[in-house]
Design a protein that fits this description.
The protein is an alpha+beta fold and 215 residues long. The two termini are 29 Å apart. One of its GO terms (molecular function) is acyltransferase activity. This is GNAT family N-acetyltransferase. Belongs to the acetyltransferase family. RimJ subfamily.
Length: 215
């Protein structure tokens, strides 16, 4: 069911192509671009994320992150991706399906971040649209959940545009920026209508080993 079970890490996984973006599993060679963008975007991202560990942007921490990603993929626990601009493979941000639950639920949680220079340009909406057929189809997930702060209007609009529905309100749902904060709870089902993409292109899965390892 899970695509990556047929690939031995670190063999190149497939890419997911969307409208103007490409999604790819992170590799160790992405460290410099990833750390640079995260550092540049620190003040932009801090209000919406858990506190960063003191050494989060070091090479050693990133190596441990890659190892965790490999374990999560192998065990069908999470599916992390970097978001790259299709035209030049510049790193834009990241998104993931985490906390995968199988059995009678077939559910995962969606999370994402966008680098400050690229926010508000439609890239993350395109990335989520590209991920949905993979999540519901290849991974067989019936339900995808997401949560965001009530004050995060851009994230609320993004989720609604890609077909998520608001389902509830979680009190002190997550510890964000060092404070336990309430969140709006969203979800979409595999049977929900697919939100229209802004352009004519439809997301597809492609296999191309030459695209892995740049950055």
């Amino acid at each position: 069911m899970a695509l990556f079970r047929s690939v031995s890490w670190p063999d190149p996984p497939s890419l997911i192509e969307g409208e103007g973006v490409v999604l790819r599993v992170p590799q160790m060679s992405d460290f410099a671009a990833w750390a640079s963008l995260r550092e540049e975007s620190r003040s932009f991202l801090a209000p919406w994320e858990p506190l960063w560990p003191a050494h989060d942007l070091t090479r050693g921490a990133f190596r441990r992150r890659i190892r965790r990603y490999a374990r999560d993929l192998k065990e069908d626990n999470a599916y992390p991706f970097l978001v790259l601009r299709a035209a030049d493979r510049v790193l834009l941000g990241g998104l993931s399906l985490s906390n995968v639950r199988r059995g009678v639920t077939q559910t995962a949680s969606l999370g994402y971040w966008m680098g400050a220079p690229f926010a508000g340009k439609g890239y993350m909406g395109a990335a989520v649209r590209a991920l949905l057929p993979y999540a519901h189809g290849t991974l067989g997930l019936r339900r995808i959940e997401a949560a965001c702060l009530p004050s995060n209007q851009p994230s609320i609009r993004l989720l609604q545009k890609v077909g998520f529905r608001r389902e509830g309100y979680g009190r002190e749902y997550l510890c964000i920026n060092g404070v336990w904060q309430d969140h709006l709870l969203f979800a979409r089902l595999s049977s929900d209508p697919v939100a229209p993409a802004p352009g004519p292109a439809r997301p597809t899965l492609v296999h191309d080993a030459d695209e892995v390892g740049e950055g």
